[in-house]
Design goal:
The complex is a heterodimer of chains A (267) and B (361).
Chain A lengths: L1 H14 L20 E12 L2 E2 L5 E3 L5 E17 L5 E3 L4 E4 L6 E2 L3 E2 L1 E10 L42 E10 L8 E8 L5 E11 L4 E9 L14 E2 L5 H16 L1 E5 L6
Parallel strand pairs in A: 1-13, 11-14
Antiparallel strand pairs in A: 1-2, 1-7, 1-8, 3-4, 4-5, 4-6, 4-9, 4-10, 9-12, 10-11, 13-15
Chain B lengths: L1 H13 L4 H21 L3 H5 L27 H11 L12 H4 L46 H4 L1 H5 L8 H10 L1 H11 L5 H13 L7 H6 L9 H10 L20 E2 L14 H4 L8 E2 L21 H10 L18 H12 L13
Antiparallel strand pairs in B: 1-2
Helix pairs in contact in B: 1-2, 4-9, 4-10, 12-15
Classes of the chains: A mainly beta (267), B mainly alpha (361).
Chain lengths: 267, 361
């Protein structure tokens, strides 16, 4: 009897151990143990010295103003690098970022030294699909919440192939009366416009804690050397002038991204 | 449960097995039962595999139909895709369905120069036939889209067509109790990007055209299938002088290459393949279309600018406008009025709008 009871308890314990595999697309958000760290990205959109919001006018040089209705972009393959150049890829691997988004929590990793952080602004070429090349498409996903599934603002070209890395839309007010004079659309993508950020963090990650990193975007940088009167539309594809403008804007966008260890004292 | 097990042990003991051995076996059974419970696949995961037998669309004189392994063709998926195809629920104003520009009575075209989308907006291009889409290595006239599934996003989201975010279209379908039931029956799963695009692409794959009088004559030896005029037309079509078959190769009547046929001196409005590749040499190139059911799909060319087939023949006979990117296969030819009639008779023999019906409900 005692043996049966013992075996029964043992068997019952197996019921508590799930044989299911975790969903590939979920973030485990494991509680950090003493040796584990939960990395987090905290997003901070700005326009120059001002906090940023969609549908609000911001001053440009010469008295003009700009308002954004869309400012979405993809981050892919975030990777922490220690001072021995050992890389730790972070999961989730693909993130779509929009103004006002909360932090992204990654799966817990081992504590240590985060010497550098690397990530792509856009989708890596192996995953992106262009001109019939193999890759991923939004139609591949059964989980509508996956970052690479179809998005409400449309982050995949519907008339071509490939993900839109950065999608900026809005309006220019040329005379400063806060009335839109023209709209702009900058849909930026294709493999050779992938922007890679590789920044020094030089921070220790203590076990049992969150490791928070600020991803700051200064959207004013988008307008560096941009003629807002004539350069109001690019879909990246469609002609050399489209590609040249898309290249300039996505480089400006990426230049406007700065990364630093989150300082709770600055909140 | 334990008492039931004890009773089982007692019952079995009556029939010969030692009690000690029975107890051990019972314990093992109990252990196995709990392990089985813990490791039995989740019911939700099982649902997704409970689907009907796939349908094979095998046409002996065609290349094997490319079908993604994870998207087998089934009758229920064809029917579901057909329902979606004809449902304006996908469009922003619920006024345009796929069938609005791809009418079955017109070989899945619409008989217009260019199509009309929601709110009367004009598209850039002529509506192409959907027959034999399954064999297309890329979609759209510029080949910009890689698969039938991702092509679904195009017309749904295009401003001049349905003008609806795909996520909105999907949400509407998912909110319908009837569609929920149909998706469960067809996929064992809910409405999601994969199932919604697969339903439509599966219906499109079922739109096959392969049993025309030409096919009966050319592949199955029925010499009576083509009239003498059409047979002469076939000879002209495959002749070195006209070189039609160099691009409109059999059996699909297209080699899917991108060609500039010298239709225009400038292609400012629509640069064709160059819109995707941004290569100057691709300016004015468009994917070679199929000629199957061509007598049903007027008007012609990428912009529907040529109204009739005789005018199409006249264009090629004239040799195009000598655009710098013009195909060297478009060099002009001499053709008599009788030869023109023969060629038209052959083109008419490429008509088959019946064979796809066997895969529909």
């Amino acid at each position: 009897m005692k043996k049966i009871a013992f075996l029964g308890l043992f068997a019952l314990s197996t019921l508590l151990i799930s044989c299911e595999e975790d969903d590939n697309n979920t973030n485990n958000n494991q509680e950090p143990t003493d040796t584990k760290v939960t990395p987090k990205f905290m997003y901070d959109y700005n326009f120059g010295a001002d906090d940023f919001q969609l549908d609000q006018y911001y001053a440009l040089d010469g008295g003009a103003q700009v308002s954004f209705s869309l400012a979405s972009f993809y981050i892919s393959q975030p990777t922490l690098v220690d001072d021995n150049d050992v890389e730790t890829p972070l999961t989730p691997e693909y993130i779509i970022v929009r103004p006002g988004d909360g932090p992204t929590s990654f799966d817990a990793i081992e504590s240590g030294h985060a010497h550098r952080l690397k990530f792509n602004v856009g989708i890596d070429a192996a995953t992106n699909t262009e001109n019939g090349a193999s890759g991923v498409q939004p139609s591949d996903f059964t989980d509508p919440n996956h970052p690479l599934a179809p998005q409400p603002e449309g982050m995949y070209w519907s008339w071509a192939s490939g993900y839109i890395f950065v999608k900026l839309e809005g309006a220019y007010d040329y005379d400063g009366d806060s009335q839109a004079d023209t709209t702009f659309k900058y849909h930026l993508g294709v493999n050779d416009l992938l922007q890679v950020k590789d920044v020094m963090l030089h921070s220790d990650m203590a076990g049992g804690e969150d490791f928070e990193v600020d991803i700051k975007l200064d959207l004013k940088e988008v307008f560096t050397n941009l003629d807002i009167n004539t350069e109001v539309l690019t879909m990246t594809m469609g002609g050399p002038e489209n590609k040249a403008l898309a290249t300039k804007i996505i480089q400006n966008f990426a230049n406007g991204i700065s990364v630093e260890k989150h300082d709770h004292g600055s909140n | 449960m334990v008492s039931r097990l004890r009773n089982m042990i007692t019952a079995v003991t009556k029939y010969g097995l030692p009690k000690s051995k029975i107890k051990k076996l019972g314990s093992l059974a109990l252990l196995s039962f709990f392990v089985f419970l813990a490791c039995t696949p989740n019911q939700d995961q099982q649902k997704s595999t409970a689907v009907e037998q796939p349908v094979s669309i095998a046409i002996p004189h065609f290349p094997e139909m490319p079908v993604p392994e994870n998207r087998p063709i089934t009758k229920k998926r064809i029917a579901l895709g057909k329902k979606l195809f004809n449902d304006p629920i996908l469009s922003k104003n619920q006024d345009i369905s796929c069938a609005s520009c791809h009418l079955s009575a017109k070989a899945f075209t619409d008989g217009r120069n260019v199509s009309t989308g929601t709110e009367g907006r004009q598209t850039l291009r002529n509506s192409p036939t959907l027959f034999n889409l399954a064999w297309q290595p890329y979609l759209f006239m510029d080949g910009g889209n890689p698969t039938l599934e991702s092509q679904v996003f195009g017309p749904i989201e295009e401003h001049t067509e349905m003008d609806n975010p795909f996520t909105e279209a999907m949400a509407r379908v998912a909110a319908s109790a009837e569609y929920q039931r149909l998706f469960k029956e067809a996929f064992g799963d809910d409405v999601n990007p994969f199932t919604l695009t697969t339903a439509l692409s599966t219906f499109e794959r079922s739109l096959v055209s392969y049993n025309s009088p030409f096919d009966q004559f050319y592949y199955y030896g029925d010499s009576s299938a083509l009239s003498p005029s059409a047979q002469r037309g076939l000879q002209l079509f495959t002749s070195e002088a006209l070189a039609c078959e160099s691009c409109h190769s059999f059996p699909l009547t297209t080699n899917f290459s991108f060609e500039n046929i010298g239709l225009k001196t400038h292609y400012q409005t629509d640069s064709g393949r160059a819109r995707v590749t941004q290569v100057a040499a691709d300016h004015g190139k468009f994917k070679v279309p199929t000629l199957r059911n061509i007598t049903l799909t007027a008007p012609y060319m990428h912009d529907g600018s040529v109204e009739t087939l005789p005018e199409v023949i006249d264009h090629f006979a004239a040799g195009g406008v000598a655009h710098p990117n013009q195909s060297n296969q478009v060099k002009g030819f001499t053709i008599t009025p009788q030869q023109k009639e023969d060629l038209l008779a052959f083109l008419a023999s490429l008509t088959d709008t019946n064979s796809y019906q066997q895969y529909q409900d």
